[in-house]
Amino acid sequence: MARIIYSMLTSLDGYIARSDEDIGLPVPEAELHQHFNDMMRQASAVLAGRRMYETMRFWDSPERETGTDEVERDFAQAWRETPKIVFSTTLQQVGFNARLVDDDAENTVRSLKAQADGLVILGGADLAASLTRAGLIDEYRLYMHPVVLGGGKPYFQSGLSLALKPLGTESLTQGVTFLRYAPAG
After folding, report:
1. Most buried residue among 14, 24, 47, 82 by CB atoms closer than 10 A?
2. pTM metric for this prediction
């Protein structure tokens, strides 16, 4: 059975982006980037909403796999190799190694969870809120940067009530605190 992991960089005040046009969070440097590379290599699939998928399409570019930065080349390769399921009612098509689902995210993820194995990475707050309400997320991973954005897109959707139990905390490079939680129920 697959484990669904909602994993995002956040500010100290709980935002994953200042706005759709401005993330506002520091760019991961090599050591932190390698942490994400390792996680992507462990993933059997990636789940993403439209906005997250469009942001991550940056890594589909052939230049990412031939660039000068080794850690970025490695991530681009891992991203391209990992199957993606994109949930969107507005996209007409998705790129390489991606499947578009335009309805019933809950049943699609429930089926994936039952049929697949390993780690499934989930990115995107709106999709995460929907899957949280359905009880489908197994772990929440917050990578808290020592910055305050003061507003924007929150990691946890406004109005979402959730009891969590801590699974661990780790200090990472760039002053990032890595927090892991599971649903308490």
Report:
1. 47
2. 0.93
